[in-house]
Amino acid sequence: MHVHSFSKGLPDHLFPMFIANGVTEIRDMGGNIPLPEVARIKQEIASGSRLGPEINAAGPILEGEQPFRPFSISVKNELEAPLAASQLVEQGAEFLKGYNTLSRPAYPGIAAQAKQLRVSFVGHIPDSITPAEASDPGQKSIEHLWRIPNNVVARPEKLKILSTDAANAQNPKAARELHSQSNEIILADYDQTKARKLHAKYSRNQTWQTPTLVVLRSYASIHDPALRQDPRMAYFSEDLRKFWGSMGGSPDPRNGDVQRRLFQHDIEIVRSMHAAGVPLLAGTDTLNPYTYPGFSLPEELQLLVSAGLSPAEALQNATLRAAQFLGVERNYGSVEPGKVANLVLLDANPLDDISNVQKSARLFSAGDFSTGLFWMICSHCSG
Ligand SMILES: [Zn+2]
Predict the structure, then answer these.
(1) How many domains does the chain have?
(2) pTM of the predicted structure, to 2 decimals
(3) What is the Cα–Cα distance from 64 to 39, expressed in whole angstroms?
């Protein structure tokens, strides 16, 4: 429920990996392949001329005056907001994704237009608004717990000042120092009452969360040399391996320890959200560093279980709950007559141990339960 597969050359490379790992549908959260080409690729998959998952795609991301990503649409003011949203949907965007730089005046215009067009508005929480303010206008999902840990502290203003100072710092060393002060505040000043209030709001408004714990863990341990020795690296080009490797920077053991504690803190926030009834989705943020298409989903499920979900709940976040989020539960998400038979048959029970989702024996893709017609793709079959 959170991947990036629409950059040049990636569909050919990544789609077979999704299928090989039993991922039969993806929510693509933004890339630089134009929407008409995305539609053509979807058509090729539907007709069987290309191997790949079913796709729900955002296309370009909506950003503010100075976009962070080169493929984003820049929304400069509130007047441009509804127009930008409508144009994307006209071009074939199935939902709208907002990002960090969206301005405070533009944000509600996009949310309102998304409602009008009956598409969901999802993404990061812009720097200009708070996590609570994102929920009431109807942002449907928040990704990576974006800006949530920074706001469930007793003194969020202090963190805001530190982050502005870090952005304006004279040199990288000064910026690092300010960042580590911020991290200490996030950990030491956690305000459980504030967190509970926010989670109650998300539960009431059905503001879904895609914590993407697997990518948060990658960034938390980015200096760990073991990441670079992962045998799955062999599936990727030299360029991508170099790019991921370059994310490490200079290792600082002191920082590494804080990062690990911050990641544990993220797990605790997910635990508290789950206990409050906040709806969750399973996503990996692949192709960010050391997140592997399809391969990383079982790891995300394990991390969700470590945050207090039962194996059944974690599985449902990747199946039935995901289908409900996308509004396609009539045809997808559970094993029932009349539904599309996108399913993985396992050799061991995942309700006993969630890691059993990796013990797959067969994958059925785009079959139909009512007619008994299946397309079967597996390593043991020749037909
Ligand atoms: Zn992402």
Answers:
(1) 2
(2) 0.93
(3) 26
